[in-house]
Write a structure and sequence with these properties.
homodimer, alpha/beta, seven-stranded parallel β-sheet, 15 helices, 16 strands
C-alpha cells in the first residue's frame, strides 16, 4: 500500500503545474470516457448487483448500487457543472503590505492528497475524483465491497481518460475493501493530507476513532423543524411533509418537529391528518399526545436519526425551549424555523449552533448541488475547517507567500 | 470540572448578544484592570519565580516566567491592537441567491468555547482571553504549574474587569495543573469546541494523541533557509544570521541551511566566519565539509528542531533537491529562499508544502504581530482550518443562514 500511496503523493505535483483550463480538459475527458464506456460500466455493475441480490441486501441498498444508462449519463453530465465552476486554486485571498515592506499574500492551494472512504453509491467515485482534479488534489478512493466491480471499472475509465493530460496515478482506488485496510489507510499521515469518511454512522465513527490523519466528520443528520407561534401553518405543513417524507433515508431529512404550544392545537391535527395518510409513524411528548393520538416519544427518540418514515414530535413553551432542545439533541447539521416574526428567526439564526439554518424552507436543501457547488464531497457536521456542504473550496487550504528584499526581524 | 465547563459554555451565549463596541469595552476594561493591579500581579509572579528558582528551573525559563512593571504595561497595551482590529463576527462572506429564490448567506460566527493549553509565559493568558472575547468565544485556559499564581491573579483581574459588561464565566482558568486534568479536559467534547495546545513538543503531542475534541497543532518549527544559485549572498548572510541567531529558542528560527552547489564555495566561508564568531555550532554534509571545517551532520540532524545555537548545513545540486529535502524533513512551518531569479522563487512557492514561504526575508516574521493580526493564539502547522499565525479570524467558523418563503425540494 505504501508504494501506491507514495506514487499518488508524488504525482500530485503534476497537478500543480496544470492551469484551470488544463484541469478542465481532464474532466471533459472523463465525461467522454464514461459516455464511451457505458456498456462496460453496466457489465461491471451487473456483477455487483447480482452479488448484492445473492447476499440478500435490502432493495433500497440494491437501488443505491444500481446503474442504468440514464444514471451513467446523469453522472457524466454532472461533470459539466464542475467544469463550469471557477477554480479556487491560486486565488489571492488577502494581501497585506507591512510597514517594513514585506508583501504577505494568502493564497488558496490544494490540500495535496485527499482520501475519501465511502459506501455503495458508485457516483461518489466520479464526483470525488472530479472535484479533486478540479481543485488540484490527488485522491485515494476506498469504496464499499458491494460496489467493487463498478468502482474498479469507473476508476479504470477515469485513469485512461486523464492519462494524455496528467499522470494517472493522481487517482488511486484501494481495491481491498476490508476494515483492516481502512484501519491501516487512515494512519498513513505521510501520504494523505485529509480524510473524508462518507457513509453510514458505523463507518464514520470507525474512521474518527482510529484515524491519525486530520478528518472532517460528515453526514450525521438529526435535523429539526420548529414551528413558531408566528408561523404560516400552510408553509409549515408543506415543509414538514417535504423534509420528512420526500426522502427519509438521507441526512438532511428531519427527525423531530418542535411545535410552539400556542399553535399546537391547530397545527398538530393538520399534521396528523397528512402524516397518517402518508403512513409516517409519529411519536410525541405528553403535550402532543393530549392533542393527537400518537405513540409516546422517549428521551432516546430525540437523539435518533431514524432515516425512516418515523418522526418525533414535541410541544415547546417558547422559542428558547426549542433552541435549547435543538442545541442539546442535534448533530449540528440542518435545522429550520417556520415563522413570519423577524425577531424570532433572527434569534433562531443567532443561537442555534448548527451548520445550516433555514427560515421558511425545507432542510432538504442542504446539498452541494442545491447550494450551487456543483457536486459535493460530503456534508460536514464539524465546526472546524468546513461546515455544511463541501465543494471545491472546502477541499483546499492556503499558504502564505511572503516577498521581501532582505528584511530581517529587529 | 463538568460544572465549571458547563457554566462557561452557557455563558458564551451572552457574548453573542454583544456587538463589537461592547466587546471592545470588555477589552479596554481588562487593560485598565491590569494597569490598576500591577502590584498584585508582581506579588503573585514573585511567588512563582521564587518557586521556579527553588526548583532549579533554567534561567531562560525563569526569564520567560518573570513579569516586571514594564512587561505588564506591554501586555496591557497589546490589548489596544486587538481593540483596533475589525471584528470578524457576523461578517457575511458570501451570499448566494438560488434560482428557486433561496438566499444563502455564509456568515462568520464564533466557535463557541475555545480551550487553550499552554506553558509558562503569563502574557498568553491575556492574549488568548482578549482574542477570544473579541471574536465572541468563551475560553478555558490551562497554564503550566510554574505560572499558576500569576495566571490566577491575571484571570481574577480579567473576570473582575469584564463583570460589568458580560457574565465573567466566559473566562475560566483550570487551576489544577496536572497531566491527568489535561487528559480529562481534552475529551470534554460536550463543552469545548476547539483545542489549541501551545508549548513544548511534549505537551502538543500529548494533546494530539489523547484529545477527542478537534484541535489545531501548533508550534513545531523545523524551518529551512535555501540559498539559490542566483542569490544575493549579502542578503543571504544577513537573513541566515537573523533567522538562526536572533532568538534560537523560538519556532520560527531556522534549523537547516541548504546551499546551492554553485554558490557553496563562496557562501559557506562567509557563513562560517560569521557563525563561528557568534559561537553557532555548524554541522554539515560531506560536500559542506570539503569547503568549511564543521562537524558532521547525521540524518537525524535534519529532523531536529535544535532551539539552540546549532545549525545543520547541506549543499544541494539543484532547487529541486532543496524542495525535496524541505518537503521531507520540514514540520511545514516556515521556509525561505534567497534568490533574484523569478522562475526559481515561483517554483519554491508552488512546490514547498509549508504554511509560510519567504522570498528574501527572514523566517522570523512568522508571527501574528508581524503579520498585523494583533496578538496570536498560536502558529498552526496543520493544513486543516488554519495555517501559520492564527489571529481572530482563525478562531471563528461559519454557518449558513438560508432564507426562503416556503421552498420545498422537488
Amino acid at each position: 500500500m505504501d508504494e501506491l500511496l507514495s506514487k499518488t503523493k508524488n504525482s500530485q505535483k503534476e497537478l500543480l503545474l496544470l492551469n484551470d483550463a488544463e484541469r478542465n480538459k481532464c474532466l471533459c475527458a472523463i465525461k467522454r470516457g464514461l459516455l464511451d464506456n457505458i456498456d462496460s460500466i453496466l457489465k461491471a455493475n451487473e456483477k455487483d448487483v447480482k452479488k448484492a441480490k445473492e447476499n440478500n441486501i435490502s432493495p433500497v441498498m440494491v437501488d443505491r448500487l444500481l446503474l442504468t444508462t440514464e444514471r451513467i449519463k446523469a453522472i457524466a453530465s454532472s461533470i459539466d457543472s464542475i467544469v463550469a465552476l471557477p477554480s479556487p486554486i491560486n486565488l489571492v485571498e488577502e494581501e497585506i503590505v507591512r510597514p517594513n515592506g514585506l508583501i504577505i499574500q494568502k493564497v488558496r492551494v490544494p490540500f495535496g492528497v485527499i482520501c475519501a472512504i465511502f459506501e455503495s453509491r458508485p457516483n461518489v467515485v466520479v464526483d470525488i475524483a472530479s472535484l479533486c482534479i478540479k481543485s488540484g488534489n490527488a485522491c485515494v478512493l476506498k469504496g464499499g465491497k458491494e460496489a467493487l466491480e463498478t468502482n474498479k471499472e469507473l476508476v479504470r475509465i477515469i485513469k485512461e481518460s486523464i492519462a494524455p493530460f496528467v499522470c494517472s496515478d493522481i487517482v488511486l482506488l484501494i481495491e481491498s475493501t476490508s476494515r483492516e485496510t481502512t484501519k491501516e489507510l487512515i494512519t498513513k499521515k505521510e501520504y494523505i493530507d485529509l480524510l473524508i469518511p462518507r457513509g453510514s454512522k458505523g463507518l464514520i465513527s470507525f474512521v474518527c476513532e482510529n484515524a491519525s490523519i486530520p478528518f472532517i466528520e460528515t453526514g450525521a443528520g438529526n435535523c429539526h423543524l420548529y414551528i413558531d407561534k408566528d408561523a404560516s401553518l400552510e408553509k409549515a405543513l408543506s415543509i414538514a411533509i417535504n423534509a420528512k417524507y420526500q426522502r427519509p433515508s438521507v441526512c438532511n431529512a428531519i427527525e423531530t418537529i418542535l411545535v410552539h404550544e400556542s399553535v399546537a392545537s391547530s397545527f398538530l391535527p393538520m399534521l396528523y391528518k397528512e402524516f397518517s395518510s402518508l403512513h409516517i409513524e409519529m411519536r410525541g411528548c405528553p403535550k402532543t399526545r393530549k392533542i393527537i393520538p400518537v405513540f409516546e416519544a422517549t428521551e432516546e427518540d430525540y437523539y435518533k436519526e431514524y432515516n425512516d418514515y418515523i418522526v418525533a414530535l414535541k410541544v415547546v413553551a417558547s422559542l428558547d425551549e426549542a433552541i435549547a432542545h435543538i442545541n442539546h439533541y442535534s448533530t449540528k447539521h440542518s435545522e429550520a424555523i417556520v415563522s413570519e416574526n423577524k425577531e424570532a428567526f433572527e434569534k433562531f439564526f443567532t443561537f442555534v449552533d448548527s451548520s445550516c439554518l433555514y427560515l421558511n424552507a425545507s432542510t432538504r436543501f442542504t446539498d452541494g448541488g442545491e447550494f450551487g457547488f456543483g457536486a459535493e464531497i460530503g456534508i460536514s457536521t464539524s465546526k472546524m475547517h468546513a461546515r455544511g456542504p463541501m465543494g471545491l473550496k472546502e477541499i483546499t487550504t492556503y499558504k502564505y507567500k511572503i516577498c521581501g528584499n532582505g528584511q530581517i526581524r529587529k
